[in-house]
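Recall that a protein's primary structure is simply its ordered list of amino acids. Everything else, from secondary elements to tertiary packing, is in principle encoded there. The following example makes that idea concrete.
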Amino acid sequence: MIKKTILILIAILHVGLNLNAVVLKHEADELIESGQYEEDYLFVGNRLEFSGKAKDLFAFGETIDFSGTTTLAITTAAKLIGVSGSIGNGIKAAGQTITIEGKTTGTSFLAGDTILFGQKSQIDGDTLVGARKVTIKGKMIGDLYAGVGELSVQNEIQGNVNVYAGELTIPEPGRITGNLIYHSEHELRAEEAARVAGKITFEKTESSESFDRFNEGFFSVSFWFELFFKISFIIIGLLMLLLPATKAMEKRQTHKEVFSQSLWGLIPIFVYPSAIVISMVLVITIPLGIALLLAFFPIILTTKILGITLIGNLISNQLSLNINSRYLFFLIAAILYSALSFIPYLGFLLMLIVSSIGCGWITFSLFQKR
């Protein structure tokens, strides 16, 4: 019975891999890619210059420069992100500096410090942005939702705009053809308001108002529930790190090792959901599908804890901190992870990256033992 179950699982994983074909690339330094792929393309490394074609593009590194074509979406996290190609189903990106000069169709989610939509950018779809500074010099067709420190609309937005900004400006030739709802410390000047064709709704944000909102949020049930959840996660993480096997995580990690482990981890993360779906579709394997589904959340929790610990190890190594305790590694990165998870639209991407690193460490350790 055990042998049959293993054979069925291998068959499911094989089918899952064929249904979700992925081209995997890992490069410690720089990769220049111009290939034409019908499959999804996954890159983990330092720098990627992509001028080819792929179905979906997943890229994680220091610098991502995209000038190619995707029939579906781009999902990326990097320090510097440049997009000047054609994207069929939106951008999901998180980085320090994001520059978009290409044509994008579909809904996009962007989070970063500075985001620039250049003059050559063409956006056809809704856009959700969270950043310190956003500048729009290209044309947009679709609604814009933004939480930013500064927003400058310097071209036409054919849609509604809903923004929470410290400062909003609409210089020439900026235009908004739909309605504008904005919360800001300063109201638009008359000449800027005249560049909005639809209805304008303004709500002034005051420091005292922010303090009142903080008090309301602080004493809300949801706040305490979230706080309880985060504290529970940290306690569970510290208890899990008591296991002797996790002592190996105290070995100093370099960014190349972490990137390599994340690549190993992305493979089962992409395969696992396919295995669940296929198991539920095939009647004979429904019990296996239910077992895989029930195991999903404990696996995510475990890999998330391990991934956060490895990131803490990497941070302490990069900052030359005199720390050799896996418990402190976990606490350092857990605090950083909790802070970054409050950035709009970044939580899921962070969970994917952290879990892939943890899953990769497990996979890599098993292969090393063999």
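Residues 1-20, 207-211 have pLDDT under 50 and may be disordered. The radius of gyration is 23 Å.
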